[in-house]
Structure formats: structure tokens, C-alpha cells
Amino acid sequence: MRILLTGAAGFLGRGIRESLAPLHDVICLDPVDTEPVREREEIVLASVTDREAIARVMAGVDTLVITHMLSRTTERGAYQESPSAAIDVNVKGTLLLMQEAVKNSVRRVILISSESVVRPFVAQGGVVPHDAEPTPAADLYILTKVFQEKVVEGFHNEYGIEVVVLRIGGVCRVDPATRRVYPKYEGAEWTRNEPGMVERGDVGLAVGASVQLEHVTYERMFVMGSSLARQHFDVQYTEKKLGWRPRFDFSWMDGRGPTRL
Ligand SMILES: NC(=O)c1ccc[n+]([C@@H]2O[C@H](COP(=O)([O-])OP(=O)(O)OC[C@H]3O[C@@H](n4cnc5c(N)ncnc54)[C@H](O)[C@@H]3O)[C@@H](O)[C@H]2O)c1
Questions:
Q1: With bands split at pLDDT 50, 70 and 90, how would you rate the model's confidence at 79?
Q2: pLDDT higher for 189 or 61?
Q3: Residue 95: domain span
Q4: If you ran DSSP here, which 8-state letter would residue 34 be given?
């Protein structure tokens, strides 16, 4: 398959590439430079807001994987400072990608979304269904994720393009030898198992399974690795639908340390 991956130089993008690159031709699109991890990767330095560049790279693509976002150097930075950039990159960039995907007969789109789009359901207790509707939010980052889901759903409804929305939790990297957990943001370290945690390579495996999935129309599912996730989110659906199992469930961190949230 020929796959276009946006946000490929990012923290999660690098985890996704590890699982896609051995099997597919991957176009890694990001304005930030990145080294290829495999021979079959093509690096394209461009923005999702640049229609000409997107039109050029979209030709011949089978699957579009959307992971880009306006980056933050801290958990809250950038979105308060440049709200219009957040809309331009996350929302308008996604709209532009979908328009070019339809023009180029791209078959499938995989959107990396966030569990935050349904967070109010978690507060109500019980298990949140995998296809719960995105909720209103008072946070610009979350609102852009809600909009992204609505954009890809709109294009599915209008043009029949296949869509898989993966609602992921908080992403980290785990060293398999030491099982040390490396957070994305300095100072936001997890010291104990929490329901939303997921290792970035495990998200990559879910993306890989979504590329191969048969009979897709419009799918929404949760991707969380933590052994505690199923108490709050319907991750069983993901496991059944994708045949996906996380390699890291963080159970070795049970009962340790203060909670991050
Ligand atoms: N990190 C998490 O814990 C987490 C949790 C839930 C959802 N997500 C989602 O995962 C995705 C990736 O997040 P991340 O943590 O890897 O973020 P990141 O900031 O590390 O990566 C985002 C990438 O997008 C790129 N980007 C920024 N502007 C762009 C543009 N105009 N055109 C193309 N690319 C652009 C950045 O250069 C960066 O490489 C995002 O969609 C985010 O909403 C992340």
C-alpha cells in the first residue's frame, strides 16, 4: 500500500512509522525534518495547509493517516498563544487533506483522534461506548479534535470514503528492556498505571491493523494499552475488530506513585 502519514516527525508519528514502514510505502509529511527509518519511506517537508504540496503527494495514495497537530512544547502551550494557528493546522488542514483525498480517489482515511472528545462520558461513570458522539468542550485543543472527527465523518457521508477513527489515550514510549516509561512532555511523567495510557508503538500496531481491516465504512474505536482502560472505555471492541492487543499494559506500575491527573 502507498500511505500518506501527516505529522510523521512527531512523537506519535515516529511510533506509527515503525509499524508501517516494513510493510508499506510511506510518505512522511511534516514541515519538520526527520530521518527515514526504512528504505521505503519518502520524506516530504510540507504543511497540511499547502494545497499544492498536498495535491502533489496525494496522487497514487491508497490510505491517508492523519496524525498532525499544532505542536505544543508543554501540555498547554501554543493553543492559548496562537488559537488561529490551531484552527488552521488541525481543522482547516484536515479539511484540505480530505478534499484532496477525494479528488485522488484515496480509499481509506485513518484519523488519530483523542479520548478527550468523549471525556464528559467518563465522568458519568460506566464504560464509554466506542462510537460515542464527540461532546462539547471548553478547551481549544479538544475542540479541534472534535472538529477533525466531524470533518472526516462528513466526507464519509458525502463521498463514501472509508474512515477509521482511533481515539487514543496519553501516549508514551516504553523501553522494553527496562520497562521504563518515557513521557512526551518533560515534567508530565506517569509514575503509576492510569486508564488512558498507551505506548506509541502499540498505537502504530492499531494503525497497521486499521490499514488491513476489511469491510470498513465508518469506524470509531478506542486505543488504550492500560490494563485499567476497559473499566472506562470499550477497548474490547477494538480488540475484536482489529485483532489488536497492546504489548504494554502498564500493570507493572499498579499502585505505584502519585496520579498524574
Ligand atoms: N501525545 C498524546 O498523548 C496524544 C493523546 C491523544 C491524541 N493525540 C493525537 O496524536 C497526534 C500526534 O500527537 P503527538 O503527541 O505526536 O504530537 P507532536 O506535536 O509530537 O506531533 C505532531 C506533528 O505534527 C506536525 N505538524 C505541525 N504542524 C503541521 C502542519 N502544518 N503540517 C503537517 N504537519 C504538522 C509537527 O511538526 C509534529 O511533527 C495528534 O493528532 C494528537 O491530537 C496525542
A1: confident
A2: 61
A3: 2-169+200-225
A4: -
148: in domain:
yes
Q: Give 45-52's long-range contacts (Cβ < 8 A, gap of 24+).
A: 47/89, 47/93, 48/6, 48/89, 48/93, 48/94, 48/96, 48/97, 49/88, 49/89, 49/92, 49/93, 49/96, 51/96, 51/100
- Alpha carbon of 255 to ligand 1 centroid (Å): 30
The answer to whether the CB of 185 is under 6 A from ligand 1 is: no
Q: What is the pLDDT of residues 123-180, one digit of tens each?
A: 899 999 999 999 999 999 999 999 999 999 999 999 999 999 999 999 999 999 988 8
12 alpha carbon – ligand 1 mean position (Å): 7
Whether 171 lines ligand 1, by a CB cut-off of 6 Å, is: yes
β pairing state of 198-199 and 25-30: unpaired
Q: Domain count for the chain, please give it.
A: 1
Ligand 1 contact via 32 beta carbon (within 6 Å): yes
- Identify which of 4, 6, 11 to mutate to test ligand 1's pocket (most ligand atoms within 8 A of the CB): 11
Q: Is 66 inside any structural domain?
A: yes
Higher pLDDT, 257 or 237: 237
Task: Give the residue among 150, 42, 147, 159 at the shortest CA–CA distance from 103.
Answer: 159
The confidence score (pLDDT) of residue 73 equals 64
pLDDT at 76: 58
- CATH number, domain at 152? 3.40.50.720
Pocket test for ligand 1, best of 43, 69, 74, 222 (most atoms within 8 A of CB): 69
In a domain, 254, yes or no: no
**For residue 31, pLDDT beyond 50:** yes
* Nearest CA owner, ligand 1 atom 1: 171
**Nearest atom, ligand 1, residue 170 CA:** 3
> Residue 261 falls within a domain, yes or no?
no
